[in-house]
Amino acid sequence: YALSGGSIIINKILLKHSLPNPFIYSFYICILGLLTILLVPFGTVFNTQSIILGSLAGVFFVFALTTFFQSLKVGEASVVGPVVGALNPLFTLVIAYFFLNQSLSTSQLVAFFAVLIGALVLTYNIWVKKLRLNMQLFWMSISGLLFAIFYLTLRGSFDNSNLLSGLIVSRLAAAIIVSTFILAPNLRNQIFHPHKDSGLSSRRTGVLLVFGESMGALSGLLLSWGVALASPALVNSLFGVQYLVILGAALILSGKHPQLLDENLSKGILAQKIIGAGILSWGVYLLSK
User: Fold this and answer.
1) How far apart are CA 135 and CA 151, in angstroms?
2) Which residues lie closer than 8 Å to 8 by C-beta, 6 or more apart?
3) Residue 209 scores a pLDDT above 80
4) Measuring CA to CA, which residue among 212, 219, 240 is closest to residue 81?
5) Cα(73)–Cα(69) distance, rounded to whole angstroms?
6) The dihedral of CA 108, 241, 144, 54: what is its sign?
7) How many CB atoms sit inside 10 A of residue 229's CB?
8) How confident is the model over 56-83, as pLDDT tens digits?
9) What angle separates helix 163-179 from helix 135-160, to the nearest 10 degrees?
10) Highest mean pLDDT among 108-112, 179-183, 245-249, 270-274
11) What φ, ψ does residue 47 adopt, rounded to 5°?
12) CB burial class (10 A; 0-12, 13-18, 19+) of residue 162?
């Protein structure tokens, strides 16, 4: 979770200063995902079902990433990161209830409302002034939904083959989807002629991109390993660590480089964010019990 928080911070910095177009950011990340092909010799099992589900997962992954980066671009990392992260298992629960005929336990019902309340507290300054769903909340909600569908289809691919096979197929499908971005003249120009007035050199941008996504990938593997070793509830109970890393980085950067993240860290807002994140973390923990 600490690595995930670090990855979100780097994503926010790059979206704000070097790669402002979420489609371009998704393009680079999905192309980097082709490196998973190197895992083929380490035990893969491909069949029709796993390929279909893995390909669907790759498609949803592209759009989940893009909507997440859009919400991260216009919002604060300390709000977007935990809200999207919590909406993912919440939507997974809703989909399982309505489409997979899974019943909800009492703790899951409590978790449902805890996540909603935590998200409302965290995003209070966004919606309270006009009391309506604005575009920032819309993108966060869509991203959480798409990530939920992505993980469900990816899990289906795992169940019909194994972890490596599903991962490889999904990343290959995602790379194929983002390759179509080149067909759009505007996107093609941005891909091959990156933003130059960012204050960050192309080399530094590339290093940060690879470093940030390596942190995100390692985080995903470690969390999967954690679930294999212990209950999902125990793993999800540490969800708050991600938020602490994001908030800690924001506090550190606000001193010397406040322009990097543009976080609102006044005392009242800080207390609101901590309370909201605490409720969210508790809700995420209950969701998996």
Assistant:
1) 24
2) 72, 77, 80, 81, 242, 246
3) yes
4) 240
5) 6
6) negative
7) 9
8) 999 999 999 999 999 998 888 888 888 8
9) 130
10) 179-183
11) -145, 175
12) middle
Single-letter amino acid code for the residue at 181: F
Q: pTM to 2 decimals?
A: 0.86
Q: How confident is the model at residue 194 (pLDDT cuts 50, 70, 90)?
A: low
Cα R_g (the chain), whole angstroms: 19
What is the per-residue pLDDT across 78-100, written as a single tens digit (0 to 9) for each?
888 888 988 888 898 888 888 87
259 Cβ contact partners less than 8 Å away, ≥ 6 residues apart: none
Residue carrying the six token digits 């690879």: 210
HEC profile of the chain: CHHHHHHHHHHHHHHHHCCCCHHHHHHHHHHHHHHHHHHHHHCCCCCHHHHHHHHHHHHHHHHHHHHHHHHHHHCCHHHHHHHHHHHHHHHHHHHHHHHCCCCCCHHHHHHHHHHHHHHHHHCHHHHCCCCCCCHHHHHHHHHHHHHHHHHHHHHHHHHHCCHHHHHHHHHHHHHHHHHHHHHCHHHHHHHHCCCCCCCCCHHHHHHHHHHHHHHHHHHHHHHHHHHHHCCHHHHHCCCHHHHHHHHHHHHHHHHHCHHHCCCCCCHHHHHHHHHHHHHHHHHHHHHCC
Q: How many residues does the chain have?
A: 289
Amino acid making up residue 230 = A
User: Token pair for residue 244?
Assistant: 């602490």
Higher pLDDT residue, 53 or 225? 53
Is residue 164 within 8 A of residue 43, CB to CB? The reply is yes
